[in-house]
Amino acid sequence: MAGLQVPEVAPSAAPRTARFGEGGRSGSPSRRGARGGAARARREAPGTSGSAARRARRDRADAAETIDPGVPPTDDGPSGAAAAETPRRGWGPKQIDPDADPLVAAREICLRLLTDRARTRHELAQALRQRGVPDEAAESVLSRFDEVGLIDDAAFAGQYVRSRHTYRGLSRRAIAMELRRKGVDDEVAGEALEEVDPESEEQRARELVDRKLRTVPADTPEQRTKAANRLVGMLARRGYGGGIAYRVVREALAAHGAEIDELGEG
Fold first, then answer.
1. Which residues, 6+ apart, have CB-to-CB distance to 204 below 8 Å?
2. Locate the RecX second three-helical domain: which residues (predicted)?
3. Is residue 88 situated within a structural domain?
4. Could you tell me the residue range of the domain that residue 214 belongs to?
């Protein structure tokens, strides 16, 4: 339109917010750039997660020197498992760098895994094997970890039994199978499983059934029959035998008006 004057935008005015799908405008930083700058600032600022991560790496290196002072840390480039491992094509764990000291690599891998949670010697040996650590280096590091108490299958088994029985409601048989898969010696596992006697096992089964019954309809014979099948299946998946499963379920459903012959024979 003739005579229409377009006012000039002052240099200090805020740029227009880009619509979805538009790139950054000339003269204004993109959101990605702004986020990248903020992330760099956080990494460089003292006391942030970046510096905390660096301190954690130094702490692990100090712990590693204490565990095996005969293997000096490397000074060239990044230290630890990140430097000792290289990406592997496709799926699977990273492989150690062929040029890395296998003792250093094995030690750092074990320390990192143990920081996550307690593990058995078998689990650590399996992890080292999957990452290409030579057997001799793996055995040396694992034996040293055994000596200083960082690997303790007996303590692991005791803690595992308490956790799986108390919080997951698993039976002795189910826990024993899991410990065997984790490489715990049968004798060591048996000592840990002594904490779970038949009385406590049955009590835990009753607690599981009572809790499940609060959410399962059991007012009519048809509902109780369906509930019985579900409850017995639940206990079976946790390793309980048919005898204890049927007995606990029948007694629990009897409190809901079920007749003994209504649920069939266990």
1. 165, 166, 169
2. 152-193
3. yes
4. 198-262
Tokens representing residue 12 in the block: 């200090």
Of 134, 79, 88, 135, the closest CA to residue 111 belongs to 79
Given 112, 133, 148, which residue is the final one in a domain? Answer: 148
Domain tally, the chain: 3
CA–CA distance, 227 with 223 (Å, rounded to integer): 6
User: Is 232 found in the same domain as 161?
Assistant: no
Tell whether the torsion through CA atoms of 204, 208, 214 and 219 is positive or negative. Answer: negative
- pTM check: above 0.85: no
> What span, in angstroms and rounded, lies between the C-alpha atoms of 218 and 207?
17
Mean pLDDT split into 10-residue runs, the chain, 266 residues: 43 45 46 51 47 51 41 38 45 76 95 95 97 96 97 97 95 97 97 95 95 89 91 97 93 76 55
The two structure tokens encoding residue 83: 């430097």
